Amino acid sequence: MRNKILLALWLAASGPMGCLAAPGTITIQVDRPTVSLPETLYGLFYEDINNAADGGLYAELVQNRSFEYHSLESKNIQLKLEGFVDFTPLSAWQKVEQEGGACNLSVESAQPLNDNNPHYALLRIVNAGKGVGLSNDGFGGISVEKGASYDFSLFAKRSASPDAPLRITLRNAAGEAIGTATVPGISTKWERHTAVLVPTETAEKATLEVVTTGAGEVCLDMVSLFPRDTFKGRNNGLRNDLAQAIAELNPKVFRFPGGCIVHGHGLENAYRWKETVGPVEARKPNWNLWGYHQTHGLGYFEYFQLCEDIGAEPLPILAVGVSCGFRKPNEFAPLDEVQPWIDDALDLVEFANGPADSRWGRVRAEMGHPAPFNLKYVGLGNEDHDTPGFRARFPIFVKALREQCPEIKIVGTSGLGPKVPLYDCMCEQRVDLSDEHYYQPPEWFIENQHRFDAWDRSQPPVFVGEYASRGNTMYNAVAEAIYLTGIERNADLVQMTAYAPLFARYGFTQWKAANLIWFDHKTVVRTPNYYVQQLFSLNKGDVYLENKADFGAATNLAVAASLDKATGDVVVKIANASGQAVETILHLAGVGATASEGTLTLLAGEKTAANTLEQPGRIQPVASRIKVGKHFAYTIPPMSVQFIRIPPGR
Question: Is 383 a catalytic residue?
């Protein structure tokens, strides 16, 4: 009855265009499209921070599988893992001596598997007993499911007793065997061996054990355990539930592998994509500036493959011979030595797009993808500081890419912060997109929803490549939604967006201000921010529709509207960051008829509400059917984001 009264009042006072200020009006001009909404408008940013790769998206269950960890205590890392414990070549490994067994365990490098993977475990058997060897506890325990298949592999050789088998065992927290397999024997040369383990019970903190008997010395390397159930069933694949959470965001662009990680702590350990492709046992591991090690098992091939699997445009980011501006001292590759960095950019295009008989196209083909990945974008730089060194080097990269890869769109960095200190450089170089980043309080996003309204359209368009409102509460999510309404209104200028960071593993987290997805060994926690990103992506529409909202004295509200050409639906997006419900009347002008019933998807909750490991589903969207029409009343709940789809009349 209340809605009918409001509607009658509105119709009596508003006239044909509906201008009543109270209780509130939203007028959408369906016949006045303004700007097209790019396919790439909603994307994702991925960086290996918070153990997002090893121990996260990369499905490998063994930590330090190739014994390449080393101490980082002297690296002057400014951010470290919570409860930081320095690394050794035997981190996550323990010696096993069973029933009279005795051995010496060390990590050696005299006879390596290859030059990129120089270390391996050496067991010197003193007394075989019932078995000697080593065990791994993964990332705070190995999580396995009863009846599931797990693919085990390792490289091994031994000096004596070639017929002595390797016994592979999964043990639960009580030390009981819950899965076994056998490698019959190993030779005196490095060889890869495989087995399958099927646990007889579910265990959250299992260990993987490799033991043997016999005599002499046994060398082990690349000890691996993968769930068979990876995303899309890929070998060397991704953790299924985490990759599925990415896919369900419907991203149309995927920016990787960082982030500050691209620069490294210095040029010596900058991220070099060529070290991340080819056979996994021959990839060169690295340590990163977030305070831990990377196997690079999740490398550029896997990133491109993921993009293909989820239908997102890949956007790789490369350093331009400049180290991270936040780590001192800053380093710059000498101008007469910058060519290898330029070659990395050019060769990356060949790896992604080149024919299978080209040098780097052949590497891609040998990895199982003869067809090109159809790379369209390359990002140069990330949050670089405004220095003469950057300004001298950036144009050299732009020139080389334009001359040799003119089909590639260049995404340059505007620097960190809303003042975009390098945007003038991006304008001078006429990049295809300028990548800006900011991490601000939620109030900033509300206050700056009109940031792009008066932007100079003659300058390069914008990619909001990293942003977050420093929190994962409902209020943070609504503030970000308000900002996104302004981005949609200015989608002729803002071509892409990406919230950041994407992942954080509980207990392995350096960046705690805000993360889109939190997880542990078995649980995925989608934040309210996640659902805002997902709902905007799924309800983007094709063209933005002119609209006007008048909420009277009410503040902290924003509206966007678009037309979905495939369905004919008018999509109305409303965000309310206030603590009060707001009565409003929606009026669709310039439309012949609408359906009488539409769909409402509502995300709402208390201001401080958040999803947690204990309550992962506390805040989540709820869909329902509502009465709609050319004019209809609607009550906007407090602290909410809603998406109303109004179908055309039939």
Answer: yes
